[in-house]
Amino acid sequence: MKLPGALTLAELLPVAQAGGFAVAAFSARYLACVRPVVEAALQTDSPLIVEISQRELGWFAVTPRAFRDALERALYETGADVPFALHLDHTWELPVIEAAVEAGFSSVMIDASALPFEENVALTRRVVEYAHRHGVSVEAELGRLTTTDKLESENDEAMYTVPEEAREFVRRTGCDALAVSVGTAHGVYPVKNPRIDFERLAAIRALLPDTPIVLHGGSGLPEETVHRAIRLPGGGISKMNVATDLENALLGAMGGLKRMTSAELDALPEELRVLGLEAVRREARDKIERFVLSAGRASAYRPGVEG
Prior knowledge:
- By secondary structure, the chain is α/β, with parallel strands linked by helices.
- Helix content is 44%, strand content 14%.
- The strands form 2 sheets. An 8-stranded parallel barrel has the order 1-2-3-4-5-7-9-10, surrounded by 8 helices. The chain has a two-stranded parallel sheet with strand order 6-8.
- Helix 5 links the parallel strand 3 and strand 4.
- Helix 2 packs parallel to helix 4 and helix 7 runs parallel beside helix 8.
């Protein structure tokens, strides 16, 4: 059963697209990091997506059920009433998607972008049919993102999304949101401002006026780049993924510790963890206020209230 109160991307993202903002999708990675992300959304009155990918589940030794429980606990303990989604990020194996749906995730991502177009269509359609039967939304990906930390993608070769293929892909799969490749990358950028193909992004938007567009690789992007992607004519991106910046804030505040499992973080001295988790909250709040422009926009989801 879906986590009570959780929205799907089909419910969350069209409001953002129409309102000229995006919803930050924070890959909390560590269970302890879920609460500071929720606190940041509560303090800024912002909608929120909390997510974790298949690879992250393995790297940080977390189960979908434990991740769902961490979010449910954080919502209860903080009294947060902001609109939110619980999302499974990059995943390519159906049993993991099924486990997330069974655990109560409200949205899943099937990433079959490494496959040929027809195979991507077929697998995505299969996931859409399964997820929609359970009231769960589906994000898909067309085109390949490069990566800087090898955590989510293992292929260095970037393949940009073809706008005409994107239109056909959405029509044939029925996916609720589409992640596109236009020059962003997973991880930390080696250059100050990577080149984003805004013409391509605008062309995709023109051909898919009603489909929410997702931009992955938000960590390290300059805010003006994100703002331009959000403010495209007709509504730009409405979901911005952020992962590496959160983890870097956590580890940096604790003296530059190396990546560890979620349980290993829990076992650290409390005074050290407090420093790290406060840095996560500050980083998430900064992304909400300065990057995706969603501060104060939770009201857009409340009946009778102007957002």
